[in-house]
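Please, structure for the following, as C-alpha cells.
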Amino acid sequence: MAEMGVRTFARLCLGAMALVGAGSAQAGDLPNLIPGFKAPEFVFAEDNWYLTLGLGVKAEAAYAGSDQYRGVPFPVINLAKGKELYDFQSVDDSSSITLFDVHGFSAGPAWSLNLGRDEDDAFELAGLGDVSPTFELGGFAQWFPVSWFRLRGELLYGMGGFSGLVGNAGADFIAANGPWRFAIGPRVAFGGNGFMEAFYGVTPTQSAIAGYFGNPIASYNTSSGIETWGVTAQMTRYMGDGFTWGMYGSYNRVVGNAADSPLTQNANQFEAGMSLSYAFNLGKSWW
C-alpha cells in the first residue's frame, strides 16, 4: 500500500509539471468584474510572472468505475502573470494558452496528462496490465457571456498509454464575497475508442490472465461515446500575502458503454480535495 502511494504521488507530480502554464489560459481581468469579488491585499506587479506552488490531498476512486476509494496527495504548480493571478479557472480545466480573445470568447491550444492506471490499484485490475501515462494535446474554447457565467469545451488527442480523442464540456456559475469565490456547474466527458478500450475494455487475453490470477472477468468490447456526466463545485479563499486555500468536490455518473463494463463496480463516482498554495514573484520575464 505504501509503495502504491509513493508511485501515485510521483505520477501526480509528473502530471502537475506537465500542467505548468495553466494560469495563462484564462480571460483577462473578468474575476474583478464579478459582483462581490475583492482581490486580497497582496502587492503584485501585473507584468511580473508568479510561480504558484502548493500541496493538497484528495479522496478519489481507486480507478475509473471503482467502488473503492483512496486518499492521495497532489501538488499545485501554476505559472501566470500578475494580472492573471485571480482569473477564474476550474479545478478540472486542462492547461491552455489563449491565442484568441474577443468580447468574452477565447480559444487556443490545450494539453493535459492522463496518469493512466496501475494493475495493483485494485484487485479487480489483477491480470489486466498497466495503462501507461498519456499526454493529451488539443484545443479549448470558452465564453463568458456575463462575468459570472462561463461555458468551456475541450477536445484533446491522447498519445501514449492510449491513442484517441477525449473531450469534455461544462458550465460554471461563479459568485464571490470579498476574498471568497465560489463556482458550481455541470460537466460531461467523452471518450474515443482508444480511451474507452484502455479504461473500460477487457481483451480475451486480459480475461484469461486475470482468471489465472484469481480475478475472473469476462472480455468486453466497448466503443466511443459519453463516459460520464456530473457536477463540480469549488471554493477558493484568497488569504492575502500570496497564500490561497481551495476546496472542491465533484460527482460523476459513468454512463453508456463505460457503465456496462465489467470493470465498473459503481457508476456513481465522487471526488473531493483541498489545497494550500503560495505565489512566488519571479519578476519580469527574461525570455
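The longest helix spans residues 2-18. The two ends are 44 Å apart (CA to CA).
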